[in-house]
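User: Look at the shape:
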Amino acid sequence: MNTVQGQETPAVQAGSAQVDVAIVGAGLAGTSLAAVLGKAGRKVALIDPHLVHHDEFRAEKIGMKQMQAFEKLGLGPAIRPLVTPVTGTHVFRLGQFFERERKWEFGFSYGALVNGMRQALPAEVPLTVGKVAEVSTGPDRQRLVLADGAVIESRLLVVATGNGETVRRAIGMERIEESKAHSMSIGFDLAITPRECAYPAIICYPRRPADRVAYLSVFPIGNRMRANLFLYRTVAEEWTRAFRENPQAVLCEIMPEVAPQCGNFGVVGPVEVRQVSLTTTRAHRRAGVVAIGDAFWTTCPTPGVGINRAMTDVDRLASTYIPAWLETPGMDVDKICAFYDDAVKVTTDQAGMRSSIYAKRITTETGLEWRLRRLRNNTARQLMILGRRISRRAELPAPSTA
């Protein structure tokens, strides 16, 4: 049993079973779906090779919209103790303070969040620790054979394996790269505590498009300050090697205006780098099986839409489709297609892909259209900054004439 944070993850060793829904992959999407279905009285098998989710640099901050999605699904009590809330983010643009965004955001470590969610699983939905060796799907029953020979049969199979390809390929799904090495995320801890940081949270946008940086986000996770840098470069570039060797020097050079607020970007611990490609899926309309979250589409973390997409999949399946599907015999392809064609899901997926592409183009494109767009946006921001300065000066008391 896992005893992270003093609790135990309900878990069993692989064993044969017959269930309503088998979920392969106990990351955020798979574990959330298992928890919601289990609380609704469905018989669920949640399968993952590891009892404890390993440390993994992925999403580390969500907004109020995503938190409300967890609350809607009844997962709020499990999520809230695992996140660090912040209510005010100071935004720097064009080399100067721009505005304070007064909104709720929540920082977290992905591995700790997933493990906490696993610990909150209903006792009726233990985590089955095992590796899938064989998969067969069809319009009536789905069959998983695990590495130790155990067999799990279900009416529906949900693939929630993120970027993992083994199960997807066994089923016949094909991942399509829409934009290879589209973006890169870098995560690291700053050598200051939240009390030592000038602001509760910071977002800093670069001054030069040539830096190919989208923005830097600094926020608390527990008693440490975490930094996420989103940019449009590749792991193999010399710039990336230089950043890994001396992140403080590189950050102070591209964002000098915010460096003093963050202890001049002193860094402790490892610098974690994650390359991301935009992907979609082909040959996924199959009887008996659905793919959710990053196992279906992968979008860029820069616009912060990944968790929203995953939770939309969980919500639509758990609240609408799975209950209806289980009321009638079979799990034919028409049922499955209804989920993939769901208007809310389609809108969420497509909006995530559009925002991923636009965020890169507005940051890096050098064509006249995009240079004019940046000029327009930056001119409007400069005017806003100037207007605030004039307003503040007007509010100052008049000098005494005595």
Remarks:
- The domain at 4-57+107-178+278-359 is CATH 3.50.50.60 (FAD/NAD(P)-binding domain).
- The first helix runs from residue 28 to 39.
